[in-house]
Design brief:
- With about 270 residues, the protein is an alpha/beta fold.
- It has one domain: Metal-dependent hydrolases (TIM Barrel, Alpha-Beta Barrel).
- The chain is built from 12 helices and 8 strands.
- The protein has helices at about 25-35, 45-55, 70-75, 80-85, 105-125, 135-145, 165-170, 185-190, 205-210, 220-230, 235-250, 265-270, and strands at about 10-15, 35-40, 60-65, 90-95, 130, 150-155, 170-175, 195-200.
- It has an 8-stranded parallel sheet.
- Helix 6 (about 135-145) links the parallel strand 5 and strand 6.
- The model is unreliable at about 1-5 and about 260-274 (pLDDT under 50).
């Protein structure tokens, strides 16, 4: 497999707290290749674990979110999260789900939680990382009535005719491992403007969903290669554009990229299983 280049890759959506025994291997890859990783969370417990892992990892950006699958647990105690919302630099994973969650009884809780987090992001000037599976039109309406500094639409697989509306709001779209097999995702890659494109893995679960095995950060090699091929670009050019896109996006939320040229020493990597 073609080697990942140091500083070449952005993972705009990953669940590092879900690695379990595979965490050391994942962190070793992130360190070795300087992979800037937006480490999203599913709930409060997930955020605490993600933040703990991120304390010693300069390329992890921990993000607080309540995933729509977990919304019912938090819908009636959202004010309890205010201090955590103030403490986080990024917000996500948040959103709506009408595809995996088929029972409409859960939708009001999703709406309530999503609205609360979007309001906080608007008030605090923070970038949001959004799940929209099967609820793309509803998510769009929520975004239209707010002024947000930065929007990441994670793993969009909805109608292409809504893409332009999201783009008009300044949203950036992540492309992940499904680009390797889906013509619909490849069509999406073709229509996203160069300056509104990001890459992701949704590790470790994205690859598990597709292939039945845990996904690791090095999968971004395959994602970048596939996206570059679809866009008919040299991979170096794609990598540079994605890095610039992330830098601009984070700056809107008052953040800057870490030092890209740091390569960990042997002492730093000692004890970490590659």
């Amino acid at each position: 497999m073609f080697a990942l280049r140091q500083g070449s890759v952005i993972d705009a959506h990953s669940h590092v707290d879900k690695y379990g025994e595979g965490l050391a291997r994942a962190l070793a890859q992130i360190r070795e290749y300087s992979i800037l990783t937006v480490a999203v969370s599913m709930d409060v417990e997930s955020f605490y674990e993600t933040r703990r892992i991120s304390e010693s990892e300069s390329f992890l950006l921990p993000s607080l979110g309540i995933h729509p699958w977990e919304a019912l647990r938090f819908a009636e105690k959202l004010s309890d999260l205010d201090a955590l919302l103030m403490s986080t630099q990024l917000i996500g994973e948040i959103g709506l789900d009408r595809f995996f969650v088929e029972d409409a009884e859960y939708y009001p809780a999703q709406e309530k939680v999503f609205s609360y987090f979007l309001d906080a992001a608007e008030d605090q000037g923070k970038v949001v990382n959004i799940h929209s599976k099967g609820a793309e039109a509803e998510v769009l309406e929520h975004l239209r009535i707010r002024s947000l500094p930065g929007i990441i639409i994670h793993w969009y697989s909805g109608p292409l005719d809504l893409v332009g509306d999201f783009l008009d709001l300044g949203a950036l779209f992540t492309v992940g491992v499904e680009v390797l097999r889906s013509s619909h995702i490849q069509d999406l890659v073709r229509v996203i403007p160069a300056d509104q494109l990001l890459t992701e893995t949704d590790n470790p679960g994205g690859w598990q969903w597709m292939k039945g095995e845990m996904g690791y950060p090095e999968l971004l090699n395959e994602v970048e290669t596939a996206v570059a091929r679809v866009r008919r670009l040299e991979r170096d050019r794609l990598s540079g554009q994605v890095r610039e896109n992330m830098s601009v996006l984070l700056s809107r939320g008052g953040l800057t990229l870490p030092e890209w040229n740091h390569r960990p020493s042997d002492d730093e990597l000692e004890g970490i299983v590659p």
